[in-house]
Amino acid sequence: MAENKESAFSKVSADKQDQVKYTAKDFASSQDVRWCPGCGDYSILAQMQRVSPDLGIKKENMVWISGIGCAARFPYYMDTYGVHGIHGRAASIATGVKINRPDLSVWVASGDGDLLSIGGNHFIHACRRNIDIKILLFNNRIYGLTKGQYSPTSEKGKKTKSTPYGSVDFPFNPISLAIGSGATFVARSLDRDAKHLQAMMKRAADHKGTAFIEIFQNCNIFNDGAFELLTDKDTKPDHVLVLEHGKPMVFGKNNDKGIRLDGLTPQVVDISNGQYSINDLWVHDELDKNSFRAHILSRFDEMEGLPTPIGVYTQVQRTTYDEDFHEQIEAIKKQKGNGDLKKLLYSMNTWEVK
Amino acid sequence: MEKGLLELTDVTVRFAGDSGDGMQLTGSQFTNTTAIVGNDLSTLPDYPAEIRAPAGTTYGVSGFQLHFSSNDIQTPGDEPDVLVAMNPAALKTNLSDLKKGGTLIVNVNSFDSKNLRLADYETNPLEDGTVEGYNVIQVPLSQLTNTALEDTSLSAKEKTRCKNFFALGMMYWLYSRPIEPTLNWLNVKFKNAPEIKAANEKALKAGYYFGETTEVFTTRYEVKPATLPKGTYRNISGNEALALGFIAASVKSGLPLFLGSYPITPASDILHELSRHKNFGVRTFQAEDEIAAVTAALGAAYSGALAITTTSGPGVALKTETIGLAVMTELPIVIIDVQRGGPSTGLPTKTEQSDLLQAMFGRNGEAPVAVVAPATPAECFSMALEASRLAIKYMVPVMYLSDGYIANGSEPWKLPDVDALPEIEVKFRTEAEGFKPYLRDENLSRPWALPGTPGLEHRVGGLEKANITGDVSYDPENHEFMVRLRAQKVKNMENDIPELEVRGDKDAELLVIGWGGTHGAISEAVDRARNRGLKVARVHFRYLNPLPKNTGEVLRSYKKILCPELNMGQLSKILRNEFLVDIEPFNKIQGLPFKSSEIENKIDSILGGNNGRK
Ligand code: SF4
User: Fold this and answer.
1) With contacts defined as CB-CB under 8 Å, which chain B residues touch A328?
2) Regions of chain A short of the pLDDT cut 50
């Protein structure tokens, strides 16, 4: 009995190939989008809807899960399956969906409070397990929906309604946290960089395992301009380092600056004055199995003078939790034979009353 | 030496010793053998919360009580007839329970000055009159075990550890039980440790022969098989029965079983048991915390599993918000609460029924769920099927209230005819035409539409939804409508569950009501009172929400109502509030089950005069 329905599910994934042609519009639900005008979330939604037709996933096989917060409204606007869950628990709801139905493409939309504060535990454990879900962090470094309290990614000293004298706690570094928790795909992008964001979304979709993208997202109501330096076209080149696999780390308005690794310490060098050349620069290797280089990259944010890297920090292959989970079940079925209820009940120390 | 053989109908034995003495093992071996012999039985394991409390202390004492009989029995027995005390601490904590004039078997070797001091005995209780009035049998258990194992290569410590098998063998002889079932068990258990196996075998046999040859036992006892209804039986604990029940529900519904769980006493055994049966396609997920366990179950339910989560009271507290989400999203999950003593961490290894109000009301907002409670260990099986059926049919979360007493206790279980178990009907929506996520069927249930089904893409969530369309709605009228609808959905189940069955005297003056694990103690107490000529009736609630349809009618038919509960009167509160009837609560909150004599005495005192006799 159980067999019939399970095989019906696997059929769904099997005919993934014969794709229907979608447009971005097919992924837009009928619901009115209710974010504040000018909010960075609009761009993230638009990019997701734009790339979705190219992901090779039937829309009935896509599931969006969220918790609570501005970002968490995301599933209502995607015309796919979706659960708008409770605060912080998107990753664990998604985990349940994916374990039960590995044939589905499961996505999480979450904010910095949702994913890293109340939901921090589920986030690190999803990364640790390498369950095949995609997690988008809309990081605006503030609580939006509750009207402007500091968040676990707000900089120390942040003045908000709940911290009128400035916050006294240090923020999380989400990229470091993801790498440290064993995530197999870790990337960062910007709400204002449509092309780059689309590319990262596509890469995440193609990755097998937990894929994490931190998206710097402007909350123009409660934390406007938090990432202006990184998104303004005048300041961006000198403050953002675009990571590309196999390429030396070059940045700057005139591509005149680069990153050199001095032992384990990254330093910015000038490659225009003849002292250093492009050959001296750190060449990005996102496939490096040892995560310590990716970890150094993730610490740029805390280091004076270093640019903020965007792009793929690391992508490594590990078997996924859902894969191993079901392989084990299949192996046990093979070894023991499919469960027989009668045998199970009558197998142990029984006796007859005549 | 020629010994007398005395036939008994009913015996209660308690093994008590240090946590490290293997008393749970000894008790469960004696139980299995007793089951195979064909007695009716009921067990009560009682162990400390600490895994290895310091040896010899009173708080490290672990006990196992077994009641067996040639008659039908309901409880593990009020007072043991026989107490096996492996050390002074076990004697100290258990002696007061032993029946006056009962048999006390002690390991006299352990009554040395160190152990006496650890148990806070100033003088040796075997010598100072403490055990006067009991039939005391002093056996040098440690010494005899060591002698029996003299020619093995085991260390002194390992030899001493075999003494529980010596005690077991001795008890097998005393109650005329075969040793073969335990020998078989040793063969399997210590397949890869032949020396340990051989030593335990030797100790078991030595104990048995000791019984035969020693002069301290003058009589041997026999308890004939009980006349149970025809069928195939096995002995089963509540947790095991529960796990098997959900596997059966998975088979009968055709849905994969998904368990999201986080280890917690006394529910972990369900996780262990289900994890062994992956060849049934069972998906057990040991989550990072209680919340992840239930949210993963919710995700699994959304995507088409028979989804359950197992926990105890503190875990339910953490799962509360997600249960509310399941109410709002109208998804079928079963939340199993194996209740223990609370509040907070409370008494993790002891039983209580104090989560009823939590199960009923412990959520923000108006968030009704179905609540069911099995009455005996074996009933945990059928209730699993029933909880699954209700959750799926009504798209409603179901709270399943077990408790430490029935979860760990065991009884003979007449195995069901697997083919005759009813199928659980599952209707997945596949038709895209006219689909709305909150459409209603005749039971007010919404369609179960699985991801992967083309054309049914939809979103569910915790925000209030408009009926039918499922769109987010802040409309005041709609909210009130939906709150009432969710309540009505649960209420509708009353047409789909059995009515209360009154047992006992139709013209009774007193009705005794109970729910869950107190069933055995209550029915035994009522039976005894009736045998003494008192007019008493009883009903037992297995459905707490909704209540059986005839509840009001039954309650109003009796002048007096008594409600024994292992809490401060939670069912009494619910029933009084609902039916405006007078109910006398009878409460015990000691982490221990009721003794039937306690309830019987209460019945007597209510019915008054001449010990209740007319
Ligand atoms: S509060 Fe901020 S994050 Fe939320 S919708 Fe408005 S602009 Fe966007």
Assistant:
1) 278
2) 1-17
Which domains can be identified in chain A, with CATH numbers?
Answer: 2-231+319-345 (3.40.50.970)
> Cα of A206 to ligand 1 centre, how many Å?
29
The answer, yes or no, to whether residue B534 has pLDDT greater than 70, is yes
CATH of B234-420, one of 3.30.1490.20, 3.40.50.970, 3.40.50.150, 3.40.50.1240: 3.40.50.970
Q: Around Cβ A124, how many Cβ atoms within 10 Å? A: 19
Residue B506: per-residue pLDDT: 87
Which CATH topology does B4-223 take?
Pyruvate-ferredoxin Oxidoreductase; domain 3 (3.40.920)
Distance from C-alpha of B583 to C-alpha of B564, rounded to nearest angstrom: 10
Domain with CATH 3.40.50.920 in chain B: 503-607
User: Residue B450 in contact with residue B304, Cβ under 8 Å?
Assistant: yes
CB pairs under 8 A between A and B: 225
Query: A residues 135-174 near B, CB within 8 Å?
Result: none
Q: Is B38–A2 a contact, with Cβ atoms under 8 angstroms apart?
A: no
Q: Which residues contact B516 (CB under 8 A, 6 or more apart)?
A: B353, B373, B374, B375, B401, B402, B403, B406
Q: Is A144 in the pocket of ligand 1 (CB under 6 A)?
A: yes
> Which atom in ligand 1 lies closest to the alpha carbon of residue A70?
4
| A6, A101, A103 ranked by CB distance to B281: nearest | A6
Torsion over CA: B522, B523, B527, B533 (sign): positive
List of chain A residues whose C-beta atoms are within 8 Å of the C-beta of residue B462: 68, 84-86
- Euclidean distance between CA atoms B518 and B402, whole angstroms: 11
Q: For the domain bounded by B503-607, which CATH number is listed?
A: 3.40.50.920
In this complex, do B471 and A31 lie within 8 Å of one another by their Cβ atoms?
yes
Q: Pick from B77, B100, B80: which is nearest to B90 by CA? A: B80
Instruction: Give contacts of B432 with chain A, Cβ < 8 Å.
Output: none
β-pairing verdict for A240-242 and A308-315: parallel
Domain with CATH 3.40.50.970 in chain B: 234-420
Confidence of residue B614 (pLDDT cuts 50, 70, 90): very low
CA distance B301 to B428: 12
State residue A11's pLDDT score.
40
ipTM: 0.94
> Under a CB-based contact definition with an 8 Å cutoff, are residues B305 and B258 in contact?
yes
Ligand 1 center from residue A80 Cα (angstroms): 23
Cβ atoms of residues B133 and B100 within 8 Å: yes
CA–CA separation, A28 vs B33, rounded Å? 66
Close Cβ partners of B349 (under 8 Å, ≥ 6 residues apart): B46, B47, B48, B49, B265, B266, B340, B404
> Where does chain B hold its CATH 3.40.920.10 domain(s)?
4-223
d(CA B104, CA B126): 11
Token pair in block for residue B439? 């459409």
Give CA separation, B559 vs A227, B94, B173, B504, in Å. Answer: 75, 40, 51, 15
Atom of ligand 1 nearest to the CA of A35: 5
CA of A72 to the centre of ligand 1 (A): 11
pTM > 0.90: yes
Does the structure show a pLDDT above 50 at B421? yes
Query: For residues B510 and B517, what is the distance between their CA atoms, to the nearest angstrom?
Result: 21
Q: Per residue in B356-401, pLDDT tens?
A: 999 999 999 999 999 999 999 999 999 999 999 999 999 999 999 9
- Straight-line distance from the first to the last Cα atom of chain B, in angstroms, rounded to the nearest whole number: 51
In this structure, what DSSP letter does residue B131 have? Answer: T
> How far is B263 from B496, CA to CA, in rounded Å?
34
A9 CB neighbour count, 10 Å cutoff: 20
